[in-house]
């Protein structure tokens, strides 16, 4: 089957020097790519430019993305081809930068812009604007593909994470969601409309996802 895997972080520029990103290494998506390739599938890996994992990648085709908007553009372009599955493991930034403000002498906020904001002046106030949810657009793009999303949560209970994963499936018409993070606890949960299956480690998750693809 022809598969797309996204992996690693997006970033959002504050100016021409500084960026907002996250701790994603790209390892999980890269190793999933290797497993799918070893099983005989044709895989396209889209990995974040800032990914720190440098293990072996066996994808037939590898591309890199930068910002959330850039990843969205690349996926939309790939949607013109025929794919059987999309595994959206990338850690997409939840926020991008909006306006930047500095306080004037009277304490009011004045919008400012710069190719490199100075660190010698007063503290800056920066808007964080929510980014568009790429997974919400995938079903129209890949209408016949199996779509698997990810839900990584830091706070809450395992049951709450599973509920959020189930909501992601319902709201975005995807087929499954991988739940993990400190709130979920050890291992992973493969959440489908039928429920959640606990999975112990990453290799077992890769096998479960490949089996799910074949169902």
- In sequence order, what are the helices and strands, one letter per element? EEEHEEHEEEEHEHEEEH
Unreliable spans are none
Strands of the widest sheet, in order across it, are 5-4-1-6-10-11-12-13
What kind of assembly state do the chains in view correspond to?
single chain
Percent of residues in beta strands: 25-35%
Rg, please?
19 Å
The beta-strand count equals 13
SSE-based structural type = alpha/beta
Instruction: Report the total helices.
Output: 5
What overall form do the CA principal axes indicate? globular
Mean pLDDT: 95
What would your notes on this structure say?
The chain is an alpha/beta fold and 215 residues long. It is built from five helices and 13 strands. The strands form three sheets. It has an eight-stranded mixed beta sheet, sandwiched between helices. A three-stranded antiparallel beta sheet has the order 8-7-9, with no helix packed on it. A two-stranded antiparallel sheet has the order 2-3. A hairpin with a 5-residue loop joins strand 2 and strand 3.
Summary keywords:
globular, 5 helices, 215 residues, eight-stranded mixed β-sheet, alpha/beta, three-stranded antiparallel β-sheet, 27% helix
Question: Would you summarize the structure shown here?
Answer:
By secondary structure, the chain is of the alpha/beta class.
Topology readout:
Blueprint: E1 2-7, E2 12-13, E3 19-20, H1 27-38, E4 42-48, E5 61-65, H2 68-78, E6 85-88, E7 95-103, E8 109-112, E9 124-130, H3 135-141, E10 146-152, H4 158-172, E11 176-180, E12 188-192, E13 195-199, H5 202-214
Parallel strand pairs: 1-4, 1-6, 4-5, 6-10, 10-11
Antiparallel strand pairs: 2-3, 7-8, 7-9, 11-12, 12-13
Helix pairs in contact: 1-5
